[in-house]
Amino acid sequence: MSWLGERLGKREPTMMRGAPSWAATLGWALVFLLALEAVTGAALAAFYSPSTTDAWASVAYIQDQAALGWLIRGLHFHGGGAIAIVAGAHLLQTALFGAYKKPRELTWWVGILLLVLVLAWAITGYVLRWDQAGYWANKVEVGIAAGTPGVGSVIRALAIGGNDYGNLTLTRFYALHIAVLPALVFGLVGFHLWLAKKHGNTPRTSTKETQPRFPGQTIRDAIVMAAVFAALLAYVVSQHGADLAGPADPSQAFDARPLWYFRWLFLLRELAGSAEKLVAMAAPAVVGGLLVALPLIDRAPDRTIGKRLPYVGIAAGLMALIAALTLVSVVSDNKPEHQKALAEADKLATIARDNAVLYGVPATGALGVYDAAPFAKAKRLFEQRCKDCHDGPKRKGPLIVQGHGNRAWLRGMISTPSGDAYWGHTKLAKTEGAMKPMDALKPEELDAVVEWLWAESGASDIDATKRKAGEAVFDGACSDCHSREEGVSGNAPALATLGSRAYYLSYISNPKSALHMGKNSEMPRFDAELSLADRDELAAYLTTLSK
Amino acid sequence: MADQPDRRGFLKVATCALGGGLGLVVAAPVLRFVIDPATQTTVTTPSEPIDLGPAERFHGDQPTRVEIVAPMIKDGWTSARDVVLGAAWIQQKGDKLVAFSAVCPHLGCGVGYDGAQFQCPCHDSKFARADGAAQSGPSKRGLDPLDLKVVDGRVKLTWASFKLDQAERELA
Fold first, then answer.
1. ipTM
2. Contact check, Cβ <8 Å, A172/B86
3. What Å distances lie between residue A49 and A52, A59, A494, B48, B163, CA to CA?
4. CB of B50 less than 8 A from some CB of A
5. Domain count of the fold of chain B
6. What is the pTM of this model?
7. Interatomic CA distance for residues B49 and B34, integer angstroms
8. Could A168 and B109 be called an inter-chain contact, meaning their C-beta atoms sit closer than 8 Å?
9. Looking at residues A22-37, what average pLDDT do you find?
């Protein structure tokens, strides 16, 4: 006897009753899928960070950056869908064969409980990604649970861990997903298997004959496992893992849909109209109740399908109904409004994920990822707050586009101050107070004063001689109206530091200052509108236009 | 040896009592611990009005959607600045501005505007543009109005969350 044999004891071949069967392989296929979830889940847990600031970022990292992260995540996510399908088939097969009959009622009931737990397990997993899809689906699901009469608000507070969605929501769902539910499910699977082994496969023709599981049954089990895995793998590869929307944004609407295996309930609620609350509670209860009741109402020992048509009908009918509702609900997503919303959400997801890869997700929160690109926020602010007046058809002020503030721009400004691209659109341009074109300047004088102005922006490519000459031209031709000393105002805008970041910051903050346009300014002050950081970023962005 | 059954009975009770007691001693504090957040205000959002800029921003014939950004929130063990709480729809009504929370009173999705009325993408509830009243779909009440004041030309909005999926409007 070998060393191990002495310690483990002699292995008796595992026996089974009846002939090896393909139908009996589905249970082991489920065990395989659960093991796959455990392995991929443990691997994902080594990357995942359950907090409102990090959750999406860590999932995006898994999906888009870690080697084969998309594959592991895809197997984990779509493995859940595979479990729903194979569990449905397992349940249907068990019901058709009358395998819930004495003495296997307990096996059947534990199986139903497992199905419920596995579905709940999926819900706890979907929110963890903290993207728009998982976040909003969870909000709706918790909202439905919160509608339970009497205890609804307690359920909500317990589920989300407090008064609102936050860090504790994620840590709670995470604990349920990776500790509590796995312990319950794997414990019950052990019990289910123990019961199944104790009572053996249900023989279709009564037999007391037994034979070893190996190799007849085990090879069938292995073939089905491999087939299930091959199908799952093919699907995961075709999808490049699982989808990931942009980070959860409480202000951004999203067409929330539950995971596909809950779509039948989603559609039932929709069809129920004002009775949706009743249906939401009643539909799972009726389905569950009927399944639980099967062994109690179908008690005759005969397992022949032909003699149990009403009961077979209940089980097969329920499954067919659920499948049909699921299909109808998924197909109904083809509505153009929904497709349009999805396309917009996709666009945001692409920006967020590309930025996450290129620049990383700011530690202050995943929504900051949209502004992670250089000057992204400044560009957005410009778009929202500046563009109407400084670019486009309804412009009221000077054009601000690429090239603003460079030598050519300065030259144009001095030559045609009321030109279309300069102050032409302002009220001031139509008054006596408008600056006149400096036609009197000789070309080399214009060159020189442009060089001096350009140097004020802090530019380094300066011809010092020209600049010096420009100073003299300025003092002769411009200084009646414009000051060139920092902090000193004249009758027209002061030009010291023109085009520098500090200049733009000061101008954006208060264009009505005597240093700038004074009361001639049609532009509003932004010192109360935008934070200092935002104004400074805008200022820094404006300096890039002249490069 | 006549007392043997008594002794066995006693040991059985004692073993069960010890085992059960141990279980309770562990379970009680664990349960108290894990339900604690449900009894706390874990996410603290500002109750004072949030500045949304000058009133002109919202003048016009279409409702404007604004992000509600809390200057500071406390979320469990962290605090953070400039956190997006949700969104509101603001529109002119006569010479006044009125605001609706963009949180659907049905199950909390973000309500959009389709050019004629407010509508929720999740379960297709529709709300009248003028007063936010529920028009069709599963929502049991109209959009929730938010307290809005214009102080020195600037819009001050007080953010609030309401209990979902019930006819009465009740603060959450």
1. 0.90
2. no
3. 9, 8, 53, 32, 30
4. no
5. 2
6. 0.86
7. 33
8. no
9. 95
